[in-house]
Design brief:
Layout: H1 3-7, H2 11-77, H3 81-108, H4 114-128, H5 134-138
Helix pairs in contact: 2-3
Length: 146
Amino acid sequence: MSDAADEGRSLRELVASATDDLTGLVHDEIALAKAEIRQDVQRVKLGGVVGVIAGVLALVALPLLAIALAFWIRAWWGAPPAIAFLVTAGVFLLIAGIFAALAAAKFKRISPPERSIRSAKESASVLSGVRPHPRAAANGKAGTPV
């Protein structure tokens, strides 16, 4: 005979024990995933705050950089102030155009989520063949839980 029979455990007890073990394993896996996600969320929050601070400082520095560049152009080339500021604006517009072209190229590469669409269509085709329970159809409540 088997070891389980020698121990006097019935099949029902073995199945119950296996179910309990599996349930415990699933709960432990979920707890581990929650802990990891919680830690990642804290890191994302901190990174977001630091990123916002960096963005604000960069926005504050940008006008100062533009003014300094215009004064440098005026001092270095002897250009009138209006021309120096126009050249500075042109430089910034050129840089903005380059970044806009790069962004447009990146957005053109984005494709729809083919696997998700295919999976949703397969699920819809499988579910379209499902018929309602006869009692639900007779009561006029097709599609509602019985």
